[in-house]
Write a structure and sequence with these properties.
single chain; mainly alpha; 5 helices; 86% helix; binds zinc ion
């Protein structure tokens, strides 16, 4: 690997790690799902995709939609188990702890797959759209920090 190429790869990894960090941070402090879903919808609305790009995105979107729905179902099931655990223990017992860990695991998976989907989307963009994508994503993820 040549040096400029290696630097580019390092920069990209740092960028992804920073994004992942923000996502994980949000998972622990607030309800991040609405934000990610909004961000995803906003990107689809604002990117002005060409018919050819829409076509390339078709199978990518279908796959993500199926995974998203499955994870939403898993989240609802985990919330039901959490409610049952709270009812059973009336406090912060081992069942509640386990149920909370489970909801975080599902949330983390949803964020991971949403992020993977966003980068799959970025793969079909032209350079101008990619620039806008980066700006929108970074602004959305840092909105609370400013
Ligand atoms: Zn999408």
């Amino acid at each position: 690997m040549t040096t400029p190429r290696r630097l580019l790869v390092i920069a990209l990894i740092a960028f992804l790690a920073a994004l992942a960090g923000v996502f994980v941070g949000r998972a622990l402090v607030d309800a991040p799902r609405a934000n990610e879903t909004e961000l995803h919808a906003m990107l689809h609305r604002d990117l002005k995709l060409s018919p050819a790009q829409q076509q390339r995105l078709g199978p990518i979107e279908a796959q993500f939609k199926a995974r998203h729905e499955a994870l939403e179902r898993a989240m609802r099931a985990a919330n039901v188990r959490l409610a049952q655990a709270i009812e059973a223990e009336h406090g912060y017992g081992p069942q509640v702890t386990k149920a909370i860990d489970e909801t975080h695991a599902v949330m983390g998976e949803l964020q991971k797959e949403t992020l993977q989907h966003l980068f799959a989307m970025r793969g079909v963009l032209d350079p101008d759209q990619a620039k806008m994508f980066d700006k929108v994503v970074v602004e959305a993820l840092t909105a609370d920090a400013r």
